[in-house]
Write a structure and sequence with these properties.
By secondary structure, this protein is an alpha+beta fold. 23% of the residues lie in helices and 38% in strands. The chain has six helices and 20 strands. The protein has a five-stranded mixed sheet, with no helix packed on it. It has a five-stranded mixed sheet with strand order 11-18-17-13-15, with no helix packed on it. It has a four-stranded antiparallel sheet with strand order 1-3-7-5, with no helix packed on it. A hairpin with a 5-residue loop joins strand 17 and strand 18.
């Protein structure tokens, strides 16, 4: 059956309307930026710009090599410190300031301890040198020198700063000032007799001398103590060492005195002192138990006996003569005294005379006067007229 014309026209129109509604719904469900992407240029630029790069690591500056000369720095001596530093980062460093600090052991010998570096690219290095001096107060051993770096760098458009302090070790040695004087030899040396050689020493350094030993060796000698340990010698210390030995035979004897020790730097050292001795034959000793023959007594000659006797006889004779004269004089005086007393008895007692001599004259002559009873004062006569003997102390009393 044929449909009416109006219905045939409405069917396509319905289909068109249905499609248009579906399209409108689809447009409504789309995101807003996508719906307007072509209309907003700013949104397009934001979606197409690349991301900013991340910042890299901080650049580090380190010392890769350093020198201080061919030998350790001596106390009080100058040396040149050389060092090489390198930028280990990925960006350049700039406005760098380098400082050198010797601490308590080193000082700058001349110039300055500060340096300026304008630019140092990544991976590049630079070498500098500084004149320095080891101070007298520095002990033996390694001492630190600090090298400091202060710098700036730009990374990802941002300026930053960095720093690093690098310490390097420089060895310092004390000079060996252990002085040992020449050996003092004995004035005489005899075979078979002990002799002694002495040596004086002094430590003039500022550090101790350790493990000092002394020894003696040689042919033709013997020593009860061939080696001896003296120990340590402090700074400024003095002393002496003696080597006792016995030569075995007469003649020229050669020996060596050896002193070994450790210097302030711990280094072992040995010093030898050769000596030469002229040994004499020994003087034989007499055994104490041996009977010795008596030495003959010296004989006095006859003329000596005669001369000695004459020398003794002369004073003896002179003494005998003197004594004889004194004896005769005493005898004569005794007889004179006896005669005077006899003359006194023969005088006239009434006249007061002594054989014609007045009594006054007798008294003046030293004879005592007779008393009224016929006796003399001090006379040896008793009251009955009998004569008694007067005993005096000596001949002189008799004369008085």
């Amino acid at each position: 059956m044929e449909q009416p014309a109006s219905r045939r026209v409405a069917t396509p129109v319905a289909w068109i309307a249905l499609v248009a509604a579906a399209l409108a719904l689809a447009v409504a469900l789309l995101p807003a930026p996508l719906a307007h992407a072509d209309d907003d240029p700013a949104a397009d630029a934001a979606t197409t710009a690349p991301a900013a790069p991340a910042a890299g690591p901080v650049p580090n500056v380190i010392i890769t090599n350093f020198t201080y000369g061919d030998a350790p720095a001596a106390v009080g001596g100058d040396f040149t410190l050389g060092y090489t530093f390198q930028n280990m980062g990925r960006v350049a460093v700039q406005n760098m300031v380098v400082t050198v600090d010797g601490g308590d052991s080193f000082s700058i010998a001349g110039g300055t301890n500060t340096f300026y570096v304008d630019w140092l690219d990544a991976g590049y290095s630079l070498t500098q040198s500084v004149p320095m001096q080891a101070l007298g107060s520095a002990a033996s051993g390694a001492h630190a020198v600090t090298v400091g770096f202060r710098y700036e760098y730009v990374d990802a458009g941002v300026r930053s700063s960095g720093s690093s302090d690098i310490r390097i070790a420089v060895p310092v040695v004390q000079p060996d000032r252990f002085q040992i004087n020449d050996p003092v030899l004995p004035e005489s040396t005899y075979a078979g007799e002990e002799a002694t050689v002495t040596m004086a020493y002094v430590n003039k350094g500022k550090a101790d001398i350790a493990n000092v030993e002394a020894s003696i060796e040689g042919e033709g000698i013997e020593s009860a103590v061939p080696s001896q340990y003296l120990g340590n010698v402090a700074s400024g210390g003095t002393g002496a060492v003696g080597f006792a030995f016995t030569p075995l035979a007469a003649g020229e004897v050669n020996a060596t005195l050896r002193i070994s020790y450790e210097d302030p730097n711990g280094e072992a050292k040995t010093r030898d002192f050769p000596i030469t001795l002229n040994v004499s034959e020994s003087i034989p000793d007499t055994d104490e138990g041996m009977d010795l023959e008596p030495e003959p007594e010296p004989t006095v000659p006859l003329w000596a006996w005669i001369a000695g006797g004459a020398a003794l006889a002369v004073p003896a004779v002179a003494l005998a003569v003197v004594l004889a004269r004194r004896r005769r004089a005493r005898h004569a005086a005794r007889q004179t005294d006896d005669g005077d007393w006899d003359d006194w008895d023969g005088g006239d007692p009434e006249a007061g005379t002594l054989d014609g001599v007045a009594a006054d004259d007798a008294g003046a002559s030293g004879f005592p006067a007779r008393s009224g009873d016929g006796t003399r004062p001090g006379d040896g006569s008793s009251a009955d007229g009998e004569r008694t003997q007067v005993i005096a102390d000596g001949d002189d009393g008799m004369r008085r």
